[in-house]
């Protein structure tokens, strides 16, 4: 029994079975048996049903990962064996468990209905690009980008040396940078004590006002031409030499630049409205009767109320 539950040892077998079951041209893969243990059987249909509970954007990653396929199959198998044990113990006759099972089925069906509503709404082929363009034209101020500068820097810290020593070193490095005998990126790799220098070679990319500490910001935005070097700048991080790579003036993004994002937002807003309209119709339908007096008895601690979980299922028939 211990070996049956140790599915890690069977991972490669399970992954191979799934691959065979779902390969192109496989006959009726949904009925393919992936795991069998006594009366317990896990099929391709079970796998696909469990996969459907994974958010859609992640499903392809699961299907492409042997480890994740194994995890899903492990979950299905173990819970199926546990469910069989629960039935043998009579837990399926517990009224609370029966009611919870009914509610879960209804929730699954309800979510399927909402998904169907969304699919039906999309089948009408709304012009989301037109809706996105309307939103863009009505709110162009939202798509303005501030002035930005692209900069590189070299940082010399004063933590493990005196401030005077740090100043002398940073001035030395600045003089080397002014000679342009070595590219600034090489000097950054050689001298900079910024923890990110191995990854970015001193390149900080574009920054806007408010994105960095004030002394650094003021020096960076004072630079005018690409290639200009700042004087030595002191901040709470240490001493900097800043090199301007590029300036971008404040500008408004074009519709094409933001179209994909706006189309996605328009689609989501449209689908949310479709779903909310339908839910409001349900909630506001005529003939709904609400026993609010009975609702009060549901409050925790109300006299005469007892949690169903505190009451074991009775097999006496009383």
Automatic annotation (TrEMBL):
Keyword Aminoacyl-tRNA synthetase: no
Matching SUPFAM superfamilies: FKBP-like, Triger factor/SurA peptide-binding domain-like
Cited Pfam families: Rotamase_3
Residue span of region Disordered: 292-318
Keywords: Isomerase, Rotamase
Domain PpiC, chain residue ranges per copy: 146-246
Record-linked Gene3D superfamilies: 3.10.50.40
This enzyme's EC code(s): 5.2.1.8
Molecular function (Gene Ontology), one example: peptidyl-prolyl cis-trans isomerase activity
Catalytic activity: [protein]-peptidylproline (omega=180) = [protein]-peptidylproline (omega=0)
PANTHER family found in the cross-reference section: PEPTIDYL-PROLYL CIS-TRANS ISOMERASE HP_0175-RELATED (PTHR47245:SF2), PEPTIDYLPROLYL ISOMERASE (PTHR47245)
Assigned protein family: Belongs to the PpiC/parvulin rotamase family.
Record protein name field: peptidylprolyl isomerase
Organism: Nitrosococcus wardiae
């Amino acid at each position: 029994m211990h070996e049956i539950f140790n599915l890690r040892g069977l991972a490669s077998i399970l992954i191979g079975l799934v691959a065979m079951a779902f390969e192109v041209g496989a006959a009726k893969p949904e009925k393919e048996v992936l795991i069998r243990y006594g009366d317990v059987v896990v099929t391709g249909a079970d796998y696909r049903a469990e996969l459907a509970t994974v958010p859609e954007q992640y499903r392809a990653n699961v299907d492409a990962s042997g480890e994740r396929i194994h995890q899903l199959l492990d979950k299905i198998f173990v819970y199926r064996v546990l469910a069989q044990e629960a039935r043998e113990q009579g837990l399926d006759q517990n009224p609370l468990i029966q009611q919870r099972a009914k509610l879960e089925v209804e929730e699954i069906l309800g979510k399927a209905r909402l998904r169907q509503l969304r699919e039906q709404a999309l089948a009408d082929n709304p012009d989301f690009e037109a809706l996105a363009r309307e939103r863009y034209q009505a709110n162009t101020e939202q798509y303005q980008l501030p002035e930005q500068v692209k900069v590189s820097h070299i940082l010399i810290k004063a933590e493990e040396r005196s401030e005077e020593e740090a100043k002398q070193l940073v001035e030395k490095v600045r003089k080397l940078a002014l000679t342009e005998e070595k590219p600034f990126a090489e000097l950054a790799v050689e001298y900079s004590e910024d923890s990110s220098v191995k990854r970015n070679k001193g390149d900080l990319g574009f920054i806007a006002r408010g994105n960095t500490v004030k002394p650094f910001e003021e020096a960076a935005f004072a630079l005018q031409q690409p290639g200009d070097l700042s004087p030595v700048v002191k901040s709470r991080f240490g001493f900097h030499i800043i090199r301007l790579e590029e300036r971008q003036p404040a500008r408004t993004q074009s519709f094409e630049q933001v179209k994909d994002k706006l189309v996605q937002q328009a689609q989501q807003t449209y689908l949310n409205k479709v779903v909310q309209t339908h839910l409001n119709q349900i909630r506001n339908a005529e003939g709904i009767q609400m026993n609010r007096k009975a609702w009060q008895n549901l409050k925790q601690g109300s006299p005469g109320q007892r949690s169903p979980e505190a009451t074991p299922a009775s097999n006496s028939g009383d």
